[in-house]
Design brief:
The complex is a heterodimer.
Chain A lengths: L2 E9 L2 E9 L3 E5 L6 H9 L6 E6 L2 E5 L4 E2 L7 E4 L11 H11 L6 H10 L15 H14 L4 E5 L7 H17 L4 E5 L2 H7 L2 E6 L2 E7 H5 L8 E13 L2 E6 L2 E5 L8 E7 L3 E4 L10 E13 L2 E8 L2 E8 H7 L6 E6 L3 E3 L1
Chain B lengths: L5 H32 L6 H13 L2 H12 L4 H10 L7 H26 L2 H9 L4 H28 L4 H6 L10 H10 L4 H32 L3
Helix pairs in contact in B: 1-5, 1-7, 2-5, 5-7, 6-7, 7-10, 9-10
The chains are: A alpha+beta, B mainly alpha.
């Protein structure tokens, strides 16, 4: 059991009221902006003291408002990687990296420090000042700094939020490596389904300050626990017009929608799990505008229903179909299919 | 300093000495006061008012109050003399005290601006990395506020060079002891035919003040540009 969390905290009109117990591995805090993800992270780290709450991390009670327990952030052994990296501008990369290590008992030995620096590809940057680093490099230094402090739990608050799509693709592999070597539980805050799907073992789905669902990645994607079954959330860039329709480019192809935004705009596209059909061959004559080639990554059967998880480029799609369809189409992990998308919802 | 007479050189060096010591002694206190004022607490407005009082107080009145308190027959003055042998009145150390009080608000203001402009996020980051309050102050807040500290010190130094009323009231106008540049200008004007000397010393004062102001502005400008960590 890595974390027991119960928080009830009001700030202005916003009420954060969440209770969940997270296991080992990577727990994603997933939800739209304003869902309370960062607030939870700040409570876990001790930067916010909620009106009511109880937080037990790795068996250690760090907050209990009923018992008057509040362990300050500097004594919590919680590693936090902020959205904006927050490197100390007057120190070089190496001094930044060792800041927490020096203060948290120097748990990592020289070999481990060298390994972390190598793993995150930081050797060439050690003597540089933070202002001479790119966004992606800053994120990596911030990750290394938190890791070397050897925390009992690691919190990543949208560590890629300030990066563009290209940089994100560059950082994701580092995060995957981090997940594999970090021996501590990780909380990963994100509003990107792709990131969550790639990194998380379990998901806490948040909406308007409440827990809207909790479970494994696929359970959440398939909508169990959530009100509306979600098939995909894609970050897309508006492209050129094609006839009456507009192309939206995402990491895995393009979607044609009746959307009139200016080219270059960034949008988020939501697709319901019931809005995705699965075909074995490219349908020749079909009313749907969007047919995307994909590869099945997982098939989950439950009674007469089934969820098909598919990878389409860097994006993950989940379709809800019947068990009979799975059998008829002989769908299994690795099957090449076409995802037929009936309708999409475009968010600003 | 060939264009200055020995007396004028003496006044210049004395001015520089008094201002330097006043700033050096005042800086730690100003930093502490700025730190206190950069937090919110009950009575902050009152403390803020007291700190800024010398900006609006008539210097002569302030000098008179100092004379009452620190004069050898004043309460504190007598105590200092009897127990420690310290006499401030009519001494250059007294001029240091008067300068310190009048330049204190300049220092506090500059340091406080620098402290308040600092990124609270960096403080939070340092906390999660195990840094306690004093640790964060020494290793994060003060280094990042350093340009403000330096600028505050320089501005205070330049302002201190011009202090007149409090010094002449509190420690009088004694050549080589308390006759700073402004007092030397005043003395020259009282002397028949001293206009040329007064003009020279005035030009010198203005040049020094302007030079230090420029340095302070440059440092503050650099600090603003640097703050994109």
């Amino acid at each position: 059991m890595s974390a027991e969390v119960a928080i009830r905290h009001r700030r202005g009109p916003f009420l954060l009221d969440v209770t969940f117990t997270a296991g080992q591995g990577v727990t994603a805090l997933f939800g739209p902006s304003g869902a309370g993800k960062t607030s939870i992270v700040h409570v876990l780290a001790g930067l916010t003291r909620p009106t009511h709450g109880r937080v037990v991390l790795q068996g250690r009670t760090v907050l209990d408002t009923n018992e008057g327990v509040f362990v300050p952030p500097e004594k919590r052994r919680v590693g936090l990687v902020f959205q904006d990296a927050r490197l100390f501008p007057h120190m070089n990369v190496e001094t930044n990296l060792l800041f927490g290590w020096r203060r948290m008992g120097k748990r990592a030995d020289a070999a481990e420090i060298a390994r972390t620096i190598q793993l995150l590809g930081l050797e060439p940057l050690l003597r540089r000042a933070p202002k001479h680093l790119s966004g992606g490099e800053k994120s990596r230094v911030a990750l290394g700094r938190a890791l070397l402090a050897a925390p009992d739990i690691l919190l990543l608050d949208e560590p890629m939020a300030s990066l563009d799509v290209g940089r994100r693709a560059e950082i994701l592999p580092w995060l995957e490596r981090l997940r594999d070597i970090a021996r501590v539980p990780i909380f990963y805050v994100s509003h990107s389904l792709d990131e969550v799907a790639r990194l998380a073992d379990q998901v806490v789905l948040l909406d308007k300050g409440k827990v809207a669902g909790f479970g494994s990645v696929y359970e959440i994607l398939a909508g169990r626990g959530a009100e509306k079954p979600l098939g995909a959330v894609l970050e897309a860039t508006v492209g050129e017009k094609e006839g009456d329709l507009t192309a939206l480019h995402f990491d895995g192809g393009k979607l044609l929608v009746a959307e009139t935004s200016e080219p270059g705009w960034k949008l988020r596209v939501r697709i319901g799990a019931d809005e995705i059909l699965v075909a074995r061959e490219a349908p020749a004559a079909i009313s749907a505008n969007n047919v995307l080639p994909a590869i099945v990554t997982e098939v989950r059967l439950e009674g007469a229903r089934a969820e098909i998880a598919m990878r389409c480029g860097g994006a993950l799609l989940v379709a809800r179909v019947t068990a009979a369809s799975v059998k008829r189409l002989a769908l299994a992990k690795g099957t090449e299919v076409f995802a037929v998308i009936k309708s999409v919802t475009v968010e600003a | 300093m060939s264009f200055l007479t020995p007396d004028e050189t003496e006044a210049l060096l004395l001015s520089l000495k008094i201002s330097s010591v006043a700033v050096a002694v005042g800086l730690p206190f100003a930093t502490a006061t700025a730190l206190v004022l950069s937090r919110s607490f009950r009575g902050r407005t009152l403390l803020d008012g007291i700190v800024h009082l010398p900006l609006v107080l008539p210097p002569v009145a302030m000098g008179f109050i100092l004379l009452m308190i620190f004069g050898t027959r004043g309460g504190v003055g007598a105590f200092l003399k009897d127990h420690f042998g310290i006499v401030l009145v009519f001494r250059w150390t007294g001029a240091v005290l008067a300068s310190l009080i009048f330049t204190f608000p300049f220092q506090v203001r500059a340091i406080r601006l620098a402290l308040e402009a600092r990124d609270q996020g960096l403080d939070e980051a340092a906390r999660t990395l195990g840094a306690g309050m004093l640790d964060r102050l020494i290793n994060i807040s003060l280094p990042l506020a350093l340009p403000g500290l330096v600028a505050g010190a320089i501005t205070a130094f330049a302002a201190s060079l011009g202090e007149f009323g409090a010094i002449i009231t509190f420690v009088s106008n004694i050549p080589g002891e308390t006759r700073t540049l402004p007092l030397a200008i005043y003395t020259a004007l009282q002397t028949p035919g001293g206009e040329a000397e007064a003009a020279r010393l005035s030009a010198l004062s203005i040049a020094i003040a302007f030079l230090f102001l420029l340095v302070a502005q440059t440092i503050m400008g650099r600090a603003t540009r640097r703050s994109d960590g």
